[in-house]
Structures
1.
Amino acid sequence: STAAALRLGQLDLVSYLGELCDRIDAAEPALHALVPEAGRRARLLADAAALDARFPDPAARPPLYGIPAGVKDIFRVDGFETRAGSLLPPAALAGSESACVRSLRAAGALILGKTVTAEFAYFEPGPTRNPHNPEHTPGGSSSGSGAAVAAGYCPLALGTQTIGSIIRPAAFCGVVGYKPTYGRIDTSGLIFCAPSFDHVGLFTQDAEGMILAASLLCAGWTPVDEQAPPVLGVPDGAYLRQASPEGLAAFENQLARLQNAGVTVRRVPALDDIAAIAHRHIRLMLGEMAEAHAPWFAAYGALYRPSTAAAIHEGRDVSEDEKAAARAGRSAVREELEKLMDEARIDLWATPAAPGSAPLGIASTGDSAMNLPWTHAGLPAMTLPAGSTENGLPLGLQLAGRAMSDERLLVWAARLEKLLGMGA
């Protein structure tokens, strides 16, 4: 892996960073995955020299030594302004560095830079385009992080998910995306969208890289060794019918490939109340957005873009009783999904990662319907690249596990990645 090669000195860090900066210089004027930064190359080389001075002995180097990480611009990072994709003055959004960024630095990672986010991690998109076809969206709200990993700018990037903001852009950009069990990665130092649903997650180029990164950021990580392939459950019903005909056909093809490789797939009626779940999720999200933004919106409301401002106005009408009921509903959905897993004897849920491939245009980030229930329930979820459409746009397979079983989800995902023919 790149991490091992850098740590052992088999890959020269200065040469590696030079190659990445050359790639960014060539592609970034059209891609717009990164928040612009003057002197990025010089800063990275200085950071690398300082890292090398701290860890001259390869045997003593930390696990992510020299790995450049993109950081979604809703995380506070020392030495960088935080704008959260907005026009608000960075001083208003300033604060202490995010806990997960501190963890990455402690593991030896370098900060490649800030990646573009939809405004305040909601729906107003930034300028990022899809690396596979610039006429299409990269997804959002972690658009820059997904695109940066897909374009080869960095092997690792931080994102967040409040509905589908990691899984969807990872699927649209053809990379691995992971949203942990709710709360397993520390969210402190984040510009929150909706604290009941905000998950810190990751983008990597393969599942093995994800296991390494997750093991360093998830609280209480305990390595597991799953020898048997997982039994997959397909949640049949109203939820699955939200996917497009193209998306469903691709999903059935993915399942057939896995079944041909010996994986058991069971169809389980589930989530027929998805419309009610989605309504509660959106209402609580808007209510919490209005709370989180109250002081900023009072001072800088005129600087908010239209759909973000409309969300905050709508959120003010969500009562405390409605918010409390929606919060209680989260655990009910989790318990129901895990009960169905027990009854059907399945290990992971498998679904399309998005209704279809990345939509045309960058005015929208796409539809997060396939991601919503797993985020609502706080269950760990992952997407693997799983083929492409006739026009060459990537498709993803979404996997979701039991709460706090992230370790098993990721190990199984690495096995399935190989069976899908996407892994090494």
2.
Amino acid sequence: MIGLVRDDLSVVELVARARDGDQAAWDEIVERYAPLVWATCQRYGLVWADADDVGASVWLRLVERLDTIRQPAALAGWLATTTRHECLRVLRAKNRELPVDDNDGLAGDPDPAADAWLLKQERLIALRTAFAELPERCRQLLALLFAEPVTPYDEIGAILDMPVGTIGPTRQRCLAKLRTSPVLAALVNASAEL
């Protein structure tokens, strides 16, 4: 019984850290509970691709609802229930599909370059969104620092009415704000699930 309490406390701690955006906690949750999700999918007889879709849906639901889980110690039960519901949803959808004999009209495998392009565009959109959320002063400074051609520090200082010696430290603070943007954190979490 003592071992179960210790495990429950570690789950509660992991959930609390994940709620605070701790990537290591998310990784630990996925590593710890992925076998439960996959085993549940196997019990429902899902093929690999469907099990992969169910797993992605379950982890997405966890990201969306982590703040609303009332008993973090019961995370395993929540994941098992959510996985069962997703498996049933996939199986119901499969029963509605009609097999087609003629595969000539169907598109082939998607172009991997298209997937790479889409991921790159999603990253750029997230970066632009996070950049737009920065304070005006940070946006101006970073735009000048990363402009082509390179703008010298003395010109940046004159444009922004800022001592040259404060440009580097201010740049670091602005980039730190950009790195901790919730938009970029969400993108990192989503990429980690892929």
